[in-house]
Amino acid sequence: MDDFTVSVVIPNRNDGKLLKSLLTAINDQTFLPKEIVIIDSSTNDDAKDIIEEYDDSVMLTYHCEKKAYPGKARNVGVKLANGNWIAFLDS
Q: What percent of the residues of the chain are helix, what percent strand, and what percent coil, each to the nearest 5?
């Protein structure tokens, strides 16, 4: 089971409050992912502020991609992910 690693890819656009709740829910799981990849196309900086407050129990990658609607954001996230499995979550 050591080879079983999960990367969580989260497209985000102006959903800072929900993103914070989602990160908390991920941290409350019994099996933590190897990493969380957030692809942000927000027009505000809420996501950056939330990520700075994140407690680092799981490696977090933040990538700003302007005009990346969910499909494109997921594709960018897959390219950045390092896990054997990829889980897509929406904030």
A: 35, 25, 40
List Cα–Cα distances, 22 to 2, 8, 29, 50, 63, in angstroms: 25, 11, 11, 11, 17
* pLDDT tens profile 42-61: 888 788 888 888 877 899 99
Q: Are 56 and 81 in contact (CB under 8 A)?
A: no
The CA distances from residue 43 to 24, 51, 56, in Å, are: 23, 16, 25
What number does CATH give the domain 6-88?
A: 3.90.550.10
- Residue 68 tokens, joined: 């990346």
d(CA 12, CA 55): 19
